[in-house]
Amino acid sequence: MCDSFDHLSMVGIQDVIDAHRRIRDYVLWTPVMTSSTIDRMIDCQVFFKCENFQRAGAFKFRGALNTVSQLTEEERNRGVITHSSGNHAQALALAASLTGIKATIVMPKNSPKVKVDATRGYGAEIVFCENSTESRVQVAQELMQTHGYVLVHPYNDARIIAGAGTAALEMIDEVEELDYLFAPIGGGGLVSGSAIVAKSLLPDSNVVAVEPKNADDAFRSFRDGKIYPSVYPDTIADGLRTQLGDLTFRIIREHVDSIITVSEEEIVNAMRLLWERMKLVVEPSGAVSLSGLLNMKDELDDKRVGVIISGGNVDLTKFFKQIS
């Protein structure tokens, strides 16, 4: 991580506000959408923050841009590197391109083709690694040692977390009161930033993180008070295959009320519901938060509920081949 910044410093609401001022001229203020059909299904009022419409197709652009915009000139000249299965890869590639910085991305071999193509299209150099967190980190560290690149971590960085939190900041600015806020959890950057904002502006709200049952390391870590590794998780939600970092874990333990898990079938059903009822193309990781809301619907009568749809980078190649 860059020498001039303590990436493990805790994050507060002012950091999120500052991040929003820093990036607001470049990110999209994504829409908050509603569905009367989904409201009737759950018997509550649901507000969807649609980061699937964000630049690079996901909330990740917020944190990536907030981070690269704070690099020193010396760090910019060295270039940046990260390890990511897709959305952070694309986000950093775009942020680096906009700011004239060389970007190298370490991606697992099983990364979705649509995300690989988009990352390369933004001008980044891609280096493939094995399909594990350990391999991602090892390959990135070797490249940093060889070339001097600056690591922009996908989630365990205060600047990334503050940038991610700007989505919830915009949402609450627009809809005001919320009783619950649902967000997906993988490495924890999005839900950390979201929880900081929710608990600062709406202290009585409940923050719920949602994770695939097939990748439940965050659920177990939260339950047992220690970080469990993510070991070859077999889930359709490729963006949630990472494990918590020490910073995100600390923030989550302080600000998140609960972590719940959902099945692969429930994730697919949520994607389909968003497609059919709201005409939204949402990737599995982005639909996880709605899956969790549907699981808890008996507890949400007459509540105002926020749901962060984290991204929309779905590979539709097979679908279009079937209808062509």
Structure description:
This protein has 14 helices and ten strands. The chain is an alpha/beta fold and 324 residues long. It folds into two domains: 13-58 and 158-318, Rossmann fold (3-Layer(aba) Sandwich); 61-151, Rossmann fold, CATH 3.40.50. Strands 1-2-10-7-8-9 form a six-stranded mixed sheet, sandwiched between helices. The longest helix has 18 residues, at 158-175. The radius of gyration is 18 Å and the shape is globular. The model is unreliable at 1-8 (pLDDT under 50).
Supply the key terms.
single chain, 324 residues, alpha/beta, Rossmann fold, 2 domains, six-stranded mixed beta sheet, four-stranded parallel beta sheet, 14 helices, globular, disordered N terminus
Q: Can you summarize the main beta sheet?
A: 6 strands, mixed
Provide the CATH architecture of the largest domain: 3-Layer(aba) Sandwich
Distance between the termini: 47 Å
Number of strands: 10
How are strands sequenced across the largest beta sheet?
1-2-10-7-8-9
Count, helices: 14
The helical percent reads 40-55%
Text of the CATH class of the largest domain: Alpha Beta
Number of domains: 2
**How much beta, percentage-wise?**
5-15%
Q: Catalogue the unreliable spans.
A: 1-8
Mean pLDDT: 93
Structural class: alpha/beta
**CATH fold-level assignment of the largest domain:** Rossmann fold
Shape field? globular
> From N to C, what is the helix and strand string?
HEHEHHEHEHEHEHEHEHHEHHEH
